[in-house]
Amino acid sequence: MSALTRRYNEQHQIKQMISALHLMPEATILDVGCGYGRNLRLLREIGLQATGVDVNEDAVAANRADGFDCISIREFEKSSTQYDFMVFSHIIEHFTPSNLLAFMDNYLSRLKTGGHLLIATPLMSPRFYDDFDHVRPYPPYAIDMMFTRERGQTQYASRHKLEGVDIRVRRRPIRLSPSRLHYLQQHHNLLYKLIVNALPGAYKWSCGLLGWTDGWMGIYRNLGLRNDAANDSA
Predict the structure, then answer these.
(1) 166 with 218: CB under 8 angstroms?
(2) Is 234 exposed, middle or buried (0-12, 13-18, 19+ CB in 10 A)?
(3) 208 phi and psi, to 5 degrees?
(4) With CB atoms 3.0 to 4.6 Å apart as the test, which of 20, 87, 121, 229 could cross-link to 31 if both were Cys?
């Protein structure tokens, strides 16, 4: 992996960000929306054992078959474990703002005060809606509005308060949409080959300048309930 690739590669940066937290091997970790275990494997590579939780029962079964601790949403809701660290990797972009707030508040109630949360999510790009399940992108500023400001937006202020610790970006070569590439391949095959080969090369030799930033990763510290939320629950 080249220095440029490492600099912007999401998995490499996530490893660096988690390693900088110096989590103990016995730390309780939850990978929310773990899918088929990509981040469970990453965490194992750096010496950490995590529990995955996912709505997809097939993914839960596959992870268990691969030797990972993985639970269903139903099992999570029946448990009472408090976690030192949570991972929200490519999940928040699948929610509307109001549903996202409720979703995150539910999980943050199980994150210890002083514990950390990792968010990894795409930004708007011409490829964002290639995944038809994507609802909208959430840049770091949107998370700040809901979770880190002393006074959040009236409609979307969380009950919990987070503190930003580390924010990084994912940058990649410019890519044409699949429909455009398909058209060029069918009707202008030579141009198609030139573009497919030229864009990654331009990205590399420009040291990433001829590319686009299409995602970000952030580490947040849980500061606990906001004062007004704490008073309400007292």
Answers:
(1) yes
(2) exposed
(3) 90, -5
(4) 87
Can you say how many angstroms the Cα of residue 31 is from the centroid of all Cα atoms in its chain?
Answer: 10
Closest CA to 52 of 30, 36, 67: 30
Sign of CA dihedral 190, 196, 199, 203: negative
Fold exhibited by the domain 3-28+82-173+212-226:
Rossmann fold (3.40.50)
- Alpha helices by DSSP H, listed for 48-109, are 57-65, 73-78, 97-108
Domain parsing of the chain, residue ranges = 3-28+82-173+212-226
pTM (2 d.p.): 0.86
pLDDT at 231: 46
Q: Is the pLDDT of residue 25 over 60?
A: yes
Phi, psi values for residue 97, rounded to 5°: -55, -45
C-beta separation of 30 from 86 below 8 A:
yes
